[in-house]
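Ticket #4471: structure export looks truncated?
Reporter: QA, pipeline team
Priority: medium

Steps to reproduce: submit the single chain below to the structure queue and open the exported record.
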Amino acid sequence: MQNFAILTAAAGVSDAQVSQVLSELVQPGDPVRLAASAVEIACASLGSAVAPQGCDLNLVPTQGRRKKMLIADMDSTMIPVECIDELADFAGVKDRVADITERAMRGELDFEAALRERVGLVAGLPRSALDECYTQRIWLNPGARTLVRTMAHLGAQTALVSGGFTYFTARVAQAAGFAVNRANTLLFHEDRLTGKVSDPILGRQAKLDSLRELAQAGGFGAGDVIAVGDGANDLAMVEAAGLGVAYKAKQALRVGADAVLDHSDLTALLALQGIPQEEWVQD
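Actual output as written to the record:
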């Protein structure tokens, strides 16, 4: 047996759901409960098994499961919103900006051009609007803090690499426990947004470059990295990682990911690595 079937669900995985999957796997072993929300089963392949309603079912190899680095996208991955869309609401242009964001995340638009256009639409917003946006509209997705802090506790590098903005990544990184954060820098003049962002813009290639740079600095390869994102901008780093995860993602990313999570919270990334709940760092 060379693989593990990993069954996860935010609401918890029942014994009945485990039995349903077990009956459809090829050469299954005995199920091992990693947490209330996660069960692993050694198997040759998934066979005809499909995820029960409300669950995610993924296949991961047995070897090299525990990764030495976590690299994650921020918007709609570590947090449930797109920061630029929420800022646009303060400027009265949310519908216009959100449409551009959606198309960019589906891979239909050039990311750099789309980012410049959206930032231009929020020109003139005071710095206080960013403060208010963060305080009122941005919080961590379920499982994010446990995921990041557990990885760090187990000795892994943790990096938040976003096509968004450092104003927000610095705060989200601190809240979740990331050691490194990288993103684009919004430019101000007299405490108001100029509608411009500093060069070079951090996009798909820069995320991949960050993965390679940080892995090399840590003395390991891309195969020792777990990467997670939700949009086309994350595709290169997700494909390069030893375990690439699409979290509630657009189709453009799902097709290139090793694992897809539609129902689970972010602690599922720990389960995919075989890390049981007794090792999780929880508040």
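Status: closed, not a bug. The export was complete when the record was re-opened. Leaving a note from the reviewer for reference: The mean pLDDT is 96.
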